[in-house]
């Protein structure tokens, strides 16, 4: 049942939200179903609650985190749920008439129900994390509601501000909740509430308390976070009435009540909560006097009343708690009715500015009387509900024990605040309903529709009923709620109107008198209409946000200046740092088993060193650098040959040829020289970094090379011939042991070709230099090159076939095929080649890859893992026994991909045409 | 020999890093090419150096590291060379397109503001 | 004797390569450098063959064949660039 | 015949090259070489406009011997010049008028000139009627032209008519 | 006999190396590109050729006759002139002052 | 079933090849193949995840060689999570692209499949060099995805991306080279065993190699000070691609997690727990900077990029805490942020195209079509990203907060909570700017393209997955927690990989 109660508003929110804007009436009816149905369910559960057993329900969600959908309806939750649903029902009714035709009724009500659900969830949550979840949900749904009139700047700003402040509180709550969970070992409320002493004794208690209080203070608009509430008044009035008087702002004090057994009882709690409450009480009520906007006044009044409630919970005595709960109810009734009245006035006159209002008693007598009664309740006039809880507050203030300073301070604050409350209530009544009539209003006001008044009437009647006969009306509710907080410790108290002519009553009277004097005195002294109060909190907030955004922007721009140079520098520096750190503490002892240098190595070494340095030296003259780098490549290849790596040497040589061709093709579209660099300092800096990097790499390379070594390769060597079927171990590794690498490698190669293809397919670019005249046919080289082609094919095939046993293999063979074809491109031109060769290279790449893939899959048929190679000697007539390794088929795939891939890249680069329009660069 | 090769690798790295930190796309490509030479030599040398012992099995010789250089790094370098080539090709084409589109071969797509040195 | 001859010959080719490097770096024109690079690779062929002789090994052969057959491609490509700018027209 | 064996000389070359590569005369390799000799020129055919039709193998053989001998001579000659005083060189360009028209012939001639005494062929005129030759040391242009034409071009015209 | 062959091998080796060295010396020493061009083209023929011949002879003497080195020679003979030709063309086109006049009987630039 | 661990690699490869071979002009064929493969990958990943939940590590010996000789794939819970996250992200991204981008970018579908192949391979391989290869596969495919059909500024940011990643890959090779030179092995389990046996006196070079590895992985995962490349690149990439890239930073995180728990983890002897002290502060700092970037972002796509960055940074915090609990929370957060980060990019693109002139600018005002639908989607995405309840982001962030031990909570909590707040502020202000403010002239009819079903469907689908992740937060978190525990006890993985035996009797 509890789960149904909670689910109803959410489900209906969804349904209402899906209605089209035109279905206003349907939306209202559907929406009303939520609070009404909820109240029925709540009524059904009331006996269980009253009996003290409560209602519980548990659905696991994330048990690992102790986060479950655990619901729990005790007296406190019951009271709040009733408040949320009851006022909610009235608000839906009110909103039905309040919203203009331009507003989307379904959207509004959907948001409202969402909020209602969140609020309900929060009060019935039986798990602290779940409570925090719904807590945040109330922030989010209120964001949507405050910003409902999205075309208004102040609505958007108010919504964002509310979200930021209350959202921050929610995050703090999350922290607090986790700490409480750590202290008690559970997030379940039952456990936490039963662990009060344990919590108070924990060293984590102050942190947990402060975090939770941050949530409380932000949500309940306590000093110094109070400023968001007046700005939330940009919301439609039903929202203000509901969220910002009756329910959401009460979430904070609800949490205080909820966690009272767990957190209260320390001096820290007392000072913090009652101190902040007292300040808020004073600040709120004082500012309320100076508001011109009806809703602004009500908002500050709400702040002060919330301060009052907070203060009561801070006092922590059982009676204070009862008083706090009582005032929550009372405030909800009179404040909601006042907001609705203000909404009616706004609705009818088109303004809420008290400087333009007045004399409405004549025009809207019925509404006026309702509002006046509610205001008197707000002022704490006897026979109205506000008076009762205020009396209890005064009593409790006087009861403070052991904190002399606090007792006097709070008592004085109570009287002062009482006086301020009277003053702003007077202003509300006086400026709106009396005095000279409304000025500069657009339309003639009428009494509102019948049904729009009903909610106000109900609430005012409640104010009166409670005020006159508390014991008959509110007592059982209050007792139930108090039991929810205090358990069996609920003190004896009497809810009667008259407790005798005692100190609290005198304080009330003093406050009343002071308030009247204050209001009329101030009116005499200063032009109340001329005072304009600007929210300092808001200014600070906005300044902070703007400043934060500005700083964030500046910092981001500074860090991410779009400079690749910096990004690369960071990588290099990071690598340097992490590479060098280990050596700071270690002593660098090189084992030093260096081998003697063969004479030829000197040549290679010298050639490589000189050419490398020259490449850097000449790098700005690009063609030159390229030629010199060719010598580096040659030296590297020679080094490979010398050091027993013939396959590497071959590959390096061939790749070098193709690379140079590609680079030259590209260079034709790039400036021939690098522009000079503006900063000499940077060059030196980079040189130093480069030297450090080079030195580090070299030192480390030397250290590792001269170290004793135990490698898996010895096993590979031993098993290559018998099990891999080849004596060129490098090739056996490539096509067998690590054939999977090779599959990936040719995939990379093929993809690269496809990428080049994709990027250049339709590209038109202006070359750096266009030679005059028709291309030279280069007859002599051409003749030779064409003669060479079949011979190169033969060599390529030869290298392919024997690759498994001797240097060679698919990759090398593929390049030996591609390079002479590349030469043909160079000598005969692109058009000539496309006419004659015209392969669909992407498809050839696909075929090659498919062959490689299929070879691997073949072994599945025999029940072996992917790419298990099968070597056999096939007897072919005349030829004798030939080794046939499945790996060779794989190698054919490599061959095709490499050949087609390199030709596709070169061909695409070559086929680029100049733009249709455009001259030389 | 180990020392000489280390120094060569280090020189290649230094040269490569210096060029890598230049502002023009082609310089960076040159730098990356040098760096890939360096890394190829490095990986290769991590199998330790041996002269005249190619990892090509011979019936006369025991198939062990005493008679053959480590074939594994060689296979890795082969893969690395091929991949580096593919990457270079894509980078080149990108550099060319970038230059063509933004009218500058500066890697940041625009010429730096004039500074007085 | 043969070994000595081979060593001397290798020395001579090595020296030749040093001279090629000099021209490669010295220039002055681009054709000079291309020529130097070409000569460098031709001398490399000889060096490879000699190394094979010296160690009675065949593993140098493939590299030598490939350079002999395709080494000139680099030369042609570079020259074509100098001549026309666009190496594939 | 022409369809299946477009360039017999080339096929022979491929055949020999393959056998040289595998360094073996086993029947399997010979067979494979034969297959390749047939197939590869056909594949290469796709990229060739015309094929070399070499005639007169005797003349060709004699020319090869002459050229090989001239190569030796030219090397000695060039070495002498290089080691000698540079100021004594008299380098020059000469346009050699060509009578030979076959592309292969021209290419062979240019190659031979490059490999023989003190000459490097440097450019073919667009109409393919003149070959620009650089002489490291030239005393008499006409004599040099005549020498080249008689010693190399004439036999080449026979081989590549 | 063997002795003589060994001497022959040595002579071939040393003369080949010598020619290559001289050619590279020429490349380094001579004053302009066209003069320099002459050396290397010869080096690739006789210099390397001598070595290759020596290698074949020597291998035959070792009892492992191999003609594979012929291939290298073949390829070099085919490609070296082409390299030289293109370098010469490059030199001609990169420096107009080096270029001689058009062939006799033709006008304008070639 | 025995071949299951390799199928997530081969399936996209096969799909790509079929596309290459069936070269048809009709993009519908490619779409069909691509989506089929995507769906198949989801199924495969789910099956693997179920299998892996028994706590074992499934080892697949490619080529039937023992793991130290050949290449082994290993699928444990972590791999399964990554595969599942990837495939669940990829399918909607692909669907989104069928809304039209795939026509404009040549080879899009092929490249997309290759990208998946690379990602899956990287998540499955147990070999350090093979990891490099798959890195390269996915990188080069990603270059293609960014650059195919690109012009102007996108090419330029692509250039930076390519150059940056090539540099990082080169560095990776250095690191792997050193590691091989020191340990003589490439298989991670084998390397781990050898590292553990390494005498402390020889630790320095090994530590340096590990440091280089860490730099590379962090560069890929975009950790301070190497994240600067990311926002611009992601913001400029095509939507479907940027969305898929939400998993790319996670790949960096994955590799750190894999290598630094396995090889340099708790059981690594002298080098135990090498990385964590670096990661925690750097992760936190990155988180702060990323959040500031989000706060200042002038466009929605840039905002999304910063959020992806922030999520990776959050993961580094989880890593840095190096407890099973924190890792479990982190892995949950990883899946969440992958899905929702991806959705954010898709959504940004939809919004961009429904505003005629202003695009996704957060500075300019414009009218927007389909505001209601997009608003709801944005709301869901924003709640999720900001870690607000009840969506997956909350579960992730909460469990992470709960996993922070007391000592670090004093500074980590404020960082995490305060950045969360800033993200809320940033998203609220972006949302109110986009959906609440209107300005300028409404676009003429027909100027704003209609929303296409695949695009909206994909976005909703991705967000829906995020919602499901939160609804099933219990089982999901249980799974990731189990994965975290598995990671903190790497010996089982090491034994499984090293002990995997090849099938007998195939070789001649
Ligand atoms: Na195998
Ligand atoms: Na072109």
Automatic annotation (TrEMBL), chain A:
Residues 125-408 form the NADH:quinone oxidoreductase/Mrp antiporter transmembrane domain. One of its GO terms (biological process) is monoatomic ion transport. Residues 780-903 form the Na+/H+ antiporter MnhB subunit-related protein domain. One of its GO terms (molecular function) is antiporter activity. The chain crosses the membrane at residues 27-46, 77-96, 108-126, 132-149, 161-180, 200-218, 269-290, 363-385, 405-426, 458-478, 498-522, 567-588, 600-618, 623-643, 649-667, 687-705, 746-763, 784-801, 807-827, 847-867, 887-912. Residues 682-766 form the MrpA C-terminal/MbhE domain. It is found in: Cell membrane; Membrane. The keyword Zinc does not apply. It comes from the Bacteria. Its main location: membrane. Residues 608-671 form the MrpA C-terminal/MbhD domain. Keywords: Antiport, Cell membrane, Ion transport, Membrane, Transmembrane, Transmembrane helix, Transport. One of its GO terms (cellular component) is plasma membrane. It is a multi-pass membrane protein. Residues 65-108 form the NADH-Ubiquinone oxidoreductase (complex I) chain 5 N-terminal domain. NCBIfam families: PRK12648.1. This is Cation:proton antiporter. It comes from Arenimonas donghaensis DSM 18148 = HO3-R19.
From TrEMBL, chain C:
It is found in: Cell membrane. InterPro entries: MrpF/PhaF-like. The chain crosses the membrane at residues 6-22, 34-53, 59-83. Coiled coil: none annotated. Keywords: Antiport, Cell membrane, Ion transport, Membrane, Transmembrane, Transmembrane helix, Transport. This is Cation:proton antiporter. NCBIfam families: PRK06161.1 (NF004812). It holds the Pfam family MrpF_PhaF. One of its GO terms (cellular component) is plasma membrane. Its main location: membrane. One of its GO terms (molecular function) is sodium:proton antiporter activity. The keyword RNA-binding does not apply. PANTHER family: NA(+)/H(+) ANTIPORTER SUBUNIT F1, NA(+)_H(+) ANTIPORTER SUBUNIT F. It is a multi-pass membrane protein. Belongs to the CPA3 antiporters (TC 2.A.63) subunit F family.
From TrEMBL, chain E:
InterPro entries: PhaG_MnhG_YufB (IPR005133). PANTHER family: ANTIPORTER SUBUNIT MNHG2-RELATED (PTHR34703). Keywords: Membrane, Transmembrane, Transmembrane helix. It comes from the Bacteria. Pfam families: PhaG_MnhG_YufB. The chain crosses the membrane at residues 7-28, 40-58, 70-92. This is Cation:proton antiporter. GO terms for molecular function: sodium:proton antiporter activity.
UniProtKB/TrEMBL annotation, chain F:
GO terms for biological process: ATP synthesis coupled electron transport. GO terms for molecular function: NADH dehydrogenase (ubiquinone) activity. The chain crosses the membrane at residues 6-22, 29-50, 70-96, 108-126, 132-150, 162-186, 206-230, 242-266, 278-296, 303-324, 330-351, 372-391, 411-436. InterPro entries: CPA3_Na-H_Antiporter_D, NADH_UbQ_OxRdtase, ND/Mrp_TM. It is a multi-pass membrane protein. It holds the Pfam family Proton_antipo_M. Residues 127-422 form the NADH:quinone oxidoreductase/Mrp antiporter transmembrane domain. One of its GO terms (cellular component) is plasma membrane. It comes from the Bacteria. It is found in: Cell membrane; Membrane. Keywords: Cell membrane, Membrane, Transmembrane, Transmembrane helix. Belongs to the CPA3 antiporters (TC 2.A.63) subunit D family. This is NADH:quinone oxidoreductase/Mrp antiporter transmembrane domain-containing protein.
């Amino acid at each position: 049942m509890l789960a149904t109660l909670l689910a109803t508003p959410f489900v209906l929110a969804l349904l209402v939200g899906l209605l089209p804007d035109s279905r206003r009436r349907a939306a209202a009816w559907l929406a009303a179903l939520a609070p009404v149905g909820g109240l029925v369910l709540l009524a059904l559960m009331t006996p269980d609650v009253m009996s003290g057993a409560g209602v519980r329900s548990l659905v696991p969600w994330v048990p690992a985190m102790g986060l479950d959908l655990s619901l729990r309806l005790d007296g406190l939750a019951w009271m709040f749920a009733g408040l949320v649903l009851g006022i909610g029902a009235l608000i839906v009714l009110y909103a039905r008439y309040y919203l203009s035709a331009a507003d989307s009724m379904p959207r509004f009500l959907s948001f409202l129900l969402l909020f209602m659900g969140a609020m309900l969830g929060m009060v019935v949550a039986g798990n602290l994390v779940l409570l925090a979840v719904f807590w945040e949900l109330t922030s989010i749904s209120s964001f949507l509601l405050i910003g409902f009139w999205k075309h208004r700047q102040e609505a958007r700003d108010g919504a964002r501000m509310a979200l930021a402040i209350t959202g921050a509180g929610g995050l703090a709550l999350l922290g607090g909740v986790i700490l409480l969970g750590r202290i008690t070992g559970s997030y379940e409320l039952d456990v936490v509430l039963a662990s009060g002493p344990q919590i108070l004794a924990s060293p984590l208690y102050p942190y947990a308390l402060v975090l939770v209080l941050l949530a409380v203070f932000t949500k309940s608009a306590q000093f110094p976070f109070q400023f968001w509430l007046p700005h939330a008044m940009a919301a439609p009035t039903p929202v203000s009435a509901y969220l910002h008087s009756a329910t959401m702002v009460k979430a904070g004090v609800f949490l205080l009540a909820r966690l009272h057994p767990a957190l209260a009882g320390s001096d820290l709690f007392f000072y913090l909560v009652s101190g902040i409450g007292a300040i808020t009480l004073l600040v709120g009520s004082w500012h309320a006097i100076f508001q011109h906007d009806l809703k602004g006044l009500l908002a500050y009044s709400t702040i002060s009343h919330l301060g009052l409630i907070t203060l009561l919970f801070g006092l922590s005595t059982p009676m204070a708690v009862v008083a706090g709960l009582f005032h929550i109810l009372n405030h909800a009734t009179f404040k909601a009715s006042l907001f609705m009245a203000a909404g009616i006035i706004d609705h009818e006159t088109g303004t809420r500015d008290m400087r333009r209002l007045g004399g409405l008693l004549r025009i809207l007598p019925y509404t006026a009387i309702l509002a006046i009664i509610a205001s008197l309740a707000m002022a704490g006039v006897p026979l109205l509900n506000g008076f009762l809880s205020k009396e209890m507050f005064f009593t409790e203030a006087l009861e403070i024990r052991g904190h002399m300073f606090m007792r006097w301070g709070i008592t004085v604050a109570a009287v002062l605040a009482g006086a301020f409350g009277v003053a702003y209530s007077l202003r509300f009544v006086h400026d709106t309903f009396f005095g000279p009539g409304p000025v500069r209003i657009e339309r003639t006001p009428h009494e509102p529709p019948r049904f729009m008044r009903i909610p106000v009437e109900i609430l005012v009647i409640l104010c009166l009923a409670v005020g006159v006969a508390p014991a008959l009306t509110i007592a059982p509710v209050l007792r139930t709620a108090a039991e929810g907080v205090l358990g069996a410790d609920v003190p004896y108290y009497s809810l009667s109107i008259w407790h005798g002519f005692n100190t609290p009553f005198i304080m009330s009277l003093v406050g009343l008198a002071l308030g009247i004097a204050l209001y009329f005195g101030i009116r005499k002294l200063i032009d109340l209409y001329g005072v304009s109060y600007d929210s300092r909190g808001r200014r600070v907030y906005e300044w902070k946000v703007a400043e934060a955004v500005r700083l964030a922007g500046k910092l981001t721009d500074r860090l991410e200046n779009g400079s690749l140079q910096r990004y690369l520098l960071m990588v290099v520096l990071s690598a340097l740092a992490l590479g060098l750190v280990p050596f700071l503490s270690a002593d660098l002892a090189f084992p030093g088993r260096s081998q003697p240098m063969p004479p030829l190595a000197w040549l290679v070494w010298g050639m490589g060193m000189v050419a490398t340095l020259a490449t850097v030296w000449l790098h700005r003259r690009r063609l030159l650098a390229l030629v010199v780098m060719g010598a580096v490549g040659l030296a590297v290849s020679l080094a490979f040959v010398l050091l027993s790596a013939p396959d590497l040497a071959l590959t390096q040589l061939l790749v070098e040829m193709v690379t140079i061709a590609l680079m030259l093709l590209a260079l034709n579209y790039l400036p021939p020289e690098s522009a000079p660099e503006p900063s000499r300092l940077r060059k030196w800096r980079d040189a130093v970094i480069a030297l450090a990097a080079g030195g580090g790499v070299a030192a480390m390379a030397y250290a590792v090379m001269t170290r004793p070594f135990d490698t898996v390769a010895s096993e590979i060597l031993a098993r290559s011939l018998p099990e891999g079927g080849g004596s060129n171990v490098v090739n056996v590794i490539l096509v067998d042991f690590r054939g999977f690498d090779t599959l990936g490698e040719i995939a990379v190669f093929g993809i690269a070709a496809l990428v080049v293809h994709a990027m250049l397919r339709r590209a038109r670019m202006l070359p750096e230099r266009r030679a005059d005249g028709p291309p030279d046919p280069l007859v002599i080289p051409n003749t030779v090159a064409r003669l060479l082609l079949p011979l190169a094919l033969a060599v390529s095939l030869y290298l392919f076939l024997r690759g498994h046993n001797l240097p060679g293999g698919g990759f090398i063979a593929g390049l030996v095929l591609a390079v002479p074809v590349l030469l043909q491109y160079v000598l005969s031109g692109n058009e000539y080649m496309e006419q004659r060769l015209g392969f669909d290279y992407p498809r050839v790449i696909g075929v090659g890859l498919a062959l490689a893939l299929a070879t691997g899959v073949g072994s599945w048929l025999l029940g072996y893992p992917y790419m298990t190679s099968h070597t056999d000697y096939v007897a072919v007539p005349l030829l004798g026994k030939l080794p046939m390794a499945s790996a060779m088929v794989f190698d054919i795939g490599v061959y095709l991909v490499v050949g087609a891939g390199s030709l596709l890249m070169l061909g695409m680069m070559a086929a680029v045409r100049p733009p249709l329009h455009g001259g030389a660069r | 020999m180990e020392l000489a090769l280390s120094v060569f690798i280090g020189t290649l790295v230094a040269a490569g890093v210096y060029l890598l930190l230049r502002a023009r796309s082609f310089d960076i490509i040159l730098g990356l090419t040098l760096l890939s030479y360096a890394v190829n030599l490095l990986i290769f040398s991590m199998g330790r150096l041996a002269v005249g012992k190619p990892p090509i099995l011979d019936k006369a010789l025991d198939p062990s590291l005493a008679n053959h250089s480590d074939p594994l790094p060689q296979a890795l370098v082969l893969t690395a060379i091929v991949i580096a080539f593919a990457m270079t090709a894509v980078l080149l084409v990108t550099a060319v397109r970038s230059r063509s589109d933004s009218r500058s071969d500066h890697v940041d797509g625009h010429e730096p503001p004039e500074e007085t040195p | 004797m043969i070994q000595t001859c081979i060593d001397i010959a290798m020395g001579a080719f090595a020296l030749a390569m040093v001279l090629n490097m000099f021209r490669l770096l010295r220039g002055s024109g681009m054709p000079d450098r291309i020529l130097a690079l070409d000569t460098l690779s031709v001398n490399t062929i000889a060096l490879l063959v000699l190394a094979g002789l010296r160690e009675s090994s065949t593993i140098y052969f493939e590299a030598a064949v490939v350079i002999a057959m395709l080494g000139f491609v680099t030369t042609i490509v570079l020259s074509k660039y100098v001549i026309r700018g666009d190496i594939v027209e | 015949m022409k369809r299946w064996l477009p360039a017999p000389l080339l096929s022979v070359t491929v055949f020999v090259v393959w056998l040289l590569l595998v360094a073996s005369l086993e029947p399997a390799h010979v067979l494979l070489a034969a297959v390749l000799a047939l197939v590869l020129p056909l594949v290469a055919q796709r990229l060739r406009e015309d094929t070399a039709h070499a005639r007169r193998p005797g003349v060709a053989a004699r020319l090869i011997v002459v050229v090989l001998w001239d190569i030796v001579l030219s090397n000695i000659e060039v070495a002498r010049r290089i080691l000698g005083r540079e100021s004594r060189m008299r380098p020059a360009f000469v346009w050699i008028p060509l009578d030979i028209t076959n592309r292969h012939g021209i290419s062979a001639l240019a190659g031979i000139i490059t490999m023989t005494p003190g000459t490097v062929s440097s450019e073919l005129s667009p109409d393919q009627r003149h070959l620009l030759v650089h002489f490291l040391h030239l005393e008499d242009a006409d004599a040099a032209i005549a020498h080249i034409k008689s010693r190399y071009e004439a036999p080449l015209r026979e081989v590549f008519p | 006999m063997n002795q003589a062959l060994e001497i022959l091998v040595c002579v071939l080796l040393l003369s080949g190396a010598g020619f290559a060295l001289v050619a590279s010396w020429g490349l380094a020493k001579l004053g302009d590109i066209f003069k320099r061009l002459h050396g290397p083209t010869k080096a690739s023929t006789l210099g390397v050729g001598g070595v290759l011949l020596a290698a074949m002879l020597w291998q035959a003497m070792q009892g492992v006759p191999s003609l594979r080195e012929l291939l290298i020679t073949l390829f070099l003979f085919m490609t070296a002139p082409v390299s030289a030709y293109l370098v010469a063309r490059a030199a001609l086109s990169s420096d107009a002052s080096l270029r001689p006049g058009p062939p006799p009987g033709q006008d304008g630039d070639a | 079933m025995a071949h299951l661990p390799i199928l997530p690699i081969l399936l996209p490869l096969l799909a790509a090849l079929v596309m290459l071979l069936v070269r048809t002009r009709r993009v519908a064929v490619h779409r069909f193949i691509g989506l089929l493969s995507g769906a198949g990958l989801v199924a495969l990943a789910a099956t693997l995840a179920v299998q892996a939940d028994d706590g074992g590590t499934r080892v697949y010996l490619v080529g039937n060689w023992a793991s130290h000789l050949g290449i082994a794939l290993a699928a444990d819970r972590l791999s399964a999570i990554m595969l599942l996250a990837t495939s669940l992200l990829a399918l909607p991204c692909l669907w989104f692209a069928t809304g039209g981008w795939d026509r404009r970018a040549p080879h899009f579908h092929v490249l997309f499949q290759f990208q998946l192949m690379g990602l899956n391979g990287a998540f499955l391989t147990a070999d350090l060099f093979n990891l490099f290869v798959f890195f390269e596969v996915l990188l080069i495919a990603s270059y293609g995805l960014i650059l195919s059909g690109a012009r102007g500024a996108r090419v330029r940011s692509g250039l930076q991306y390519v150059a940056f990643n090539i540099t990082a890959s080169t560095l990776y090779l250095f690191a792997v080279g050193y590691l091989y030179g020191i340990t003589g092995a490439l298989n991670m389990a084998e390397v781990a065993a050898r590292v553990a046996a390494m005498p402390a006196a020889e630790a320095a070079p090994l530590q340096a190699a590990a440091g280089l590895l860490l730099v590379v992985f962090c560069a890929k995962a975009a950790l301070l000070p190497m994240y600067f490349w990311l926002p611009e690149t992601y913001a400029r990439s095509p939507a479907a691609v940027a969305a898929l890239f939400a998993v790319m930073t996670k790949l960096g995180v994955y590799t750190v997690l894999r290598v630094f728990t396995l090889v340099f983890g708790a059981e690594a002897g002298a080098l135990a727990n090498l990385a964590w002290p670096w990661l925690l502060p750097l992760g936190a700092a990155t988180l702060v900077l990323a959040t500031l970037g989000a706060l200042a972002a002038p466009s929605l796509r840039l905002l999304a990029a910063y959020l992806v960055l922030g999520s990776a940074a959050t993961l580094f915090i989880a890593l840095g805490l190096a407890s099973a609990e924190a890792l479990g929370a982190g892995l949950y957060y990883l899946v969440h942020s992958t899905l929702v980060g991806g959705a954010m990019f898709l959504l940004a693109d939809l919004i961009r195209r429904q505003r005629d002139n202003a695009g996704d600018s957060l500075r300019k005002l414009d009218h927007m079509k389909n505001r209601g639908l997009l608003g709801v989607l944005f709301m869901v995405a924003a709640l999720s990203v900001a870690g607000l309840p009840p969506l997956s982001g909350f579960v992730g962030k909460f469990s992470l907060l709960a996993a922070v031990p007391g000592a670090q909570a004093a500074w980590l909590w404020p960082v995490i909570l305060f950045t969360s707040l800033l993200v809320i502020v940033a998203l609220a202000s972006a949302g109110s700017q986009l959906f609440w403010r209107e300005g300028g002239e409404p676009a003429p009819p027909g100027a704003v393209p209609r929303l296409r079903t695949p695009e909206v469907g994909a976005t909703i689908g991705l967000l829906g997955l995020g919602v499901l992740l939160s609804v099933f937060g219990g089982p999901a978190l249980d799974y990731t927690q189990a994965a975290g525990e598995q990671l903190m006890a790497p010996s089982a993985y090491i034994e499984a990989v090293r002990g995997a035996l090849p099938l007998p009797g195939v070789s001649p």
